[in-house]
Structure formats: structure tokens, C-alpha cells
Amino acid sequence: MPQTVDERVLIQRCLTHDVGAWNDFVDRFSGLIYRVIHFTAHLRSVDLAPDDVEDIAAEIMLKIVANNYALLRQFQGRSSLSTYLAVIARRICVHELVKRVQIQQRQIATANGGAKDSLNRAGDASLETLDEVQNLLGRLPKKVREAVRLFYLEGRSYEEISARLNIPVNSIGPMLARAKGFLRQRMQQRFQAPPAPKKAKK
């Protein structure tokens, strides 16, 4: 879905520092950003405290306004603004999760006196998350994939998804839950540490 007129106007208001523009931007897209954070953390099996979620959301917002809204200036309108922001939010979220995992791993490594290989594997795997999620989404049934995209990447309500896909509203929650379960399971299988090689018998 391409950029809408409302989105174009909102971006222009932000770029010209119109009074109240940023507040309107936050009101419109903060829910989407929080959903992306929770969705990404769920796929990586990372439990985030409320303070961590707030910190990551704040980091995403800071990146959006950095360098006089450079990220908004780069938006070319080929997709909806929601989709564009969701991609940005997911990328930043992955890097923030990597940092948190690395801090935890360092603390464990310090306590145990090592485990650098485990730390490196965790960081590398997390950095591959974006491409892997895109590949896995492509393996979902078309309507399920579209429901995931509309809810998590465009911030659409259940009612909007129901109307768009012509499916009952009460089927959307279970559909999204099954999709999350599928994606999380595949991510865990993809990034779990390989089994230790068996020693050759003498």
C-alpha cells in the first residue's frame, strides 16, 4: 500500500517543525512501535521488563528525529508510512536486543570466567533476525501472512483487518497467536546452538 495523503501531510509538518506535528506523529504511530517491540522480543524469546520496552521505544523515536528527521526525509512513499516505520523499528529493536543479550552474556561470562563463543553466536544470530523473519513470513498462508503484516507492520485494528481480508473479527486473535507460535518455533530451531560433535570411538 503506497503512502497516503494524510501521511504525506504529517511528514511535511514534521519536516517543517509545525507546532504539534511531533505530538501528532507520536499519537499516531507509538502503538505500532510498541507492537513491533513486543513482536520482535517474542520471536527472539527475550523477556523485556516495562522499563526496557520504554527505553527501546524512546531509542526508536530518537532515531526518527535524529539529524532533522533524516529517516523521514529518506522515505520515498513506495509503501505506507506504517510499513516503513515498522521496518525501522524492528531493525533498531533487534540491535537493542543484541546489546541487552550481550550485556547479560558478559555478566554470565565474567561470573563463569569465559563463554566468548556463546556471546558471539548470540550476537550474530540476532543480527540475522530481520532477514529470517521475512523468509519465515513468506511461508505462512496468504491470509495469515497478510493479517500479521496489517497488525504488526501497519498497526491496523482487528476490525480493519476483518474488513480488508473478509474474515470474522473473532478469528483474528487466534490466527495471530498461531502465526507468532509458528515464527517463534522456527526462529528457535534456526538459531539454537548446534549439538556438540560426538567423540570418535577408539
Q: Would you give an account of this structure?
A:
By secondary structure, this protein is an all-alpha fold. The protein contains nine helices and no strands. The chain has helices at residues 5-15, 21-43, 50-74, 81-112, 116-127, 129-137, 142-153, 158-165, 172-191. The radius of gyration is 20 Å and the shape is flat. The termini are far apart. 23% of the residues are buried. Residues 118-128 have low confidence and may be disordered.
Q: Count of helical segments?
A: 9
Distance between the termini: 63 Å
The radius of gyration is 20 Å
Q: Which runs of at least 5 residues are low in confidence (pLDDT < 50)?
A: 118-128
* Percentage of β-strand residues: under 5%
Number of strands: 0
* Mean pLDDT over the full residue set: 80
Question: Which range best describes the helical content: under 10%, 10-25%, 25-40%, 40-55%, 55-70% or over 70%?
Answer: over 70%
Sheet with the most strands, sense and barrel status = none
Task: Tell me the series of helices and strands, N- to C-terminal.
Answer: HHHHHHHHH
What shape does the CA trace take? flat
- Specify the structural class: mainly alpha
- How would you classify the quaternary structure? single chain
Keywords:
9 helices; mainly alpha; 202 residues
Summarize, please:
This protein has 202 residues and is an all-alpha fold. The protein has helices spanning 5-15, 21-43, 50-74, 81-112, 116-127, 129-137, 142-153, 158-165, 172-191.
List the SSEs and their pairings.
Blueprint: H1 5-15, H2 21-43, H3 50-74, H4 81-112, H5 116-127, H6 129-137, H7 142-153, H8 158-165, H9 172-191
Helix pairs in contact: 1-2, 2-3, 2-4, 3-4, 4-5, 7-9
